[in-house]
């Protein structure tokens, strides 16, 4: 219990790596197995889920405040980059993408979104590619929405717009080559 617990207040938006953006709705004291525990009670509206995290474990599970403006700008710049698609088996790439999403790292999530985005004039995505893309895009959009105090669809619209602009640039390069 020597670890200094991160401090979040009721009403704060937080990021829990495996679930994305949630909100601290209360601080609770509970007795579990004869021990007094302080718990953050987190609410994830999109999943209609409530999670209780011991305050002394918040840091070790990777719970954090919303990203800084600098990190968000970096993530948005990542979206403008050229997609990197490895030539490994899909199952291996899918595992890597899932690990990046669950890391909670905004720039890594933006890489997944960028790499799996398909513009309207590009080949259709497989079902599993689309699932992973949507999970990553949603995670990125929820954090952007919470930071800019807009709704998730508006944030997602902005992300897709950036991706379409970038795809147009890289598709011109392909046709010119």
TrEMBL record:
Residues 7-117 form the CarD-like/TRCF RNAP-interacting domain. GO terms for biological process: rRNA transcription. The lineage of its organism: Bacteria, Pseudomonadati, Pseudomonadota, Alphaproteobacteria, Sphingomonadales. SUPFAM superfamilies: CarD-like. InterPro entries: CarD-like/TRCF_RID, CarD-like/TRCF_RID_sf, CarD-like_C, CarD-like_regulator, CarD_C. It holds the Pfam family CarD_C. Coiled coil: none annotated. This is CarD family transcriptional regulator.
């Amino acid at each position: 219990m020597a670890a200094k617990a991160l401090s979040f207040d009721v009403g704060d938006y937080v990021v829990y790596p495996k679930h994305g953006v949630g909100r601290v709705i209360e601080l609770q004291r509970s007795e579990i197995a004869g021990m007094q525990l302080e718990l953050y009670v987190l609410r994830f509206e999109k999943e209609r889920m409530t999670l209780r995290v011991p305050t002394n474990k918040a840091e070790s599970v990777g719970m954090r405040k919303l990203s800084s403006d600098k990190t968000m700008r970096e993530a948005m710049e990542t979206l403008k980059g050229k997609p990197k698609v490895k030539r490994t088996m899909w199952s291996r790439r899918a595992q890597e993408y899932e690990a990046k999403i669950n890391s909670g790292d905004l720039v890594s999530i933006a890489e997944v979104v960028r790499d799996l985005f398909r513009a309207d004039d590009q080949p259709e995505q497989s079902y599993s590619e689309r699932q992973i893309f949507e999970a990553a895009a949603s995670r990125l959009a929820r954090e952007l929405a919470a930071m800019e105090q807009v709704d998730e669809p508006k944030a997602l619209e902005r992300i897709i717009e950036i991706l379409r602009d970038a795809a147009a640039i890289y598709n011109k390069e392909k046709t010119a080559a």
